[in-house]
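Shipment paperwork, digital attachment
Item: protein structure file
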Amino acid sequence: MKNNLSFHIPENKRETGLIVSNHHLFWDGDPDSIVFDEAEVRDYLMDLNQPIWIIKTQNEIGFSQQGNFKSEPKGPFEIAAWTNPISIKQFGDSSFCEDYNVKAAYYAGGMANAISSEEMVIALGKSGFIGSFGAAGLSLARLESAIQKIQLALSLGPYIFNFIHNPLEPSLEQRTIDLYLQYGIRVIEAAAFINLSPSIVTYRAVGLSLGSTGEINIKNRIIAKVSRKEVASKFLQPAPEKILQELITNGHITEQQAVLARQVPIADDITVEADSGGHTDNRPLVSLLPSVIALRNQLQNQYKFRSPVRIGAGGGISTPESALAAYMMGAAYVVTGSVNQACTESGACEHTRRLLAQADIADVIMTPSADMFEMGVRVQVLKKGTLYPMRAQKLYDLYSNYNSIEEIPTEERGKIEKKIFQLPLEVVWQNTEEFFNQRDPQQIIKAENNPKRKMALIFRWYLGLSSRWSRDAVKGREMDYQIWCGPSIGAFNEWTKNTYLEEYQNRHVTDVTQQILNGCAYCYRVQALKLQGLNLPSHLEAYIPEPLN
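Attachment content:
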């Protein structure tokens, strides 16, 4: 069936067709297989398992999925362009797929407070993908329950557990690692690190052993999420000697494990985290990724590790085009985050998922973080539909301007008790004491002798609970929901507008994953044809997600 579609070949390539070794190439196939109809052409582009032949036939351009090259003309069928079959497994570094036993170099990143939930990790694992459970902010008992549930469902994997740096509570960080080692968690995603801690070095070192042929076996793998070169460099090198010596002295690792730790980098993979939700430096991926890849190459040349550290990309990955851009810049794998939070398997409540599905690219803002409040660290959150960013900033301004709760003017204190805490600050402090007496009593002891630290803990009560209110759908607190996300959620919403994925109830994490990857392959085909001189109509260039069978 013929249509009035117009496929444009630039003037300088219009008469040449596809040329190899100065010879025109012609097509040998069944003329009845050539299609011109837009719907059929799109179907061909989306059928990733088949090649596509673009054929010049007199004054028209047609598409076929069968045929062969021919050096001599057989009818008026000159090859204008062609593409091979393509698999989503071809993108990125194949060793990522091999090491983690997955069908694509892609993973769903960890989102704290179990927002990247057990259900999300299990659904991805059963579909041949991998996700990171959002362990940050959870009690050890809650984390242990998640480990048991995921391991029961995915006894052979694949899965990842997030491990967030906690410089203010190092004992909790160590107990988290102890729990991971107890349950044989073999892959962790290290996030929000500024410096390496003894706990993460312990995890790496105790998983090292010497093989029968002298090679170093790495049992405990680390994927580090970083947004700065200076932090990346720490994960790209062996463990610091000072920490290794401390661990030997304390009996946490053996001399042999320390010897092996000096010969391998801390991380197997580094996710370059650009403009993302949560902890982020808002760096543009096009600048940050090549910079960290160059640093990896420099340090690999210095250390000559048997397996170079893979460099992946996260932050802003939410559409086929953004995934393809990252792969084409050299990313060994890509990582998604914000888009998964709006999926049905997410730990976020329905109100939060509805807000995320309505967000635009500009509907995000930076605000003080709960876990590193005193250090001035900021996180990126949704600003549409919530007053949390403004209220969190108000608390940080008060913390910066006063040295204790008692110094805050009475009128100002009354406002925050009424509008933000909705409780007297004395009651907030009682709740804070109860929380830390169970989690880390040292925090209360330090605060009793330091009024400013006490004020920080009181303010962190609000910042910490706000994300849980969003997760647990706490009524009456909707305007205080802290919803971590980056501008990528807006890009995803624009891409899926007027498709079945526009409705958040239709967003399932494995479906979203497959659509992004299929779309990535589709867009690659479009660009490959462009490089050969064929320009498709603009409405065929974009991948439109349709329900998967």
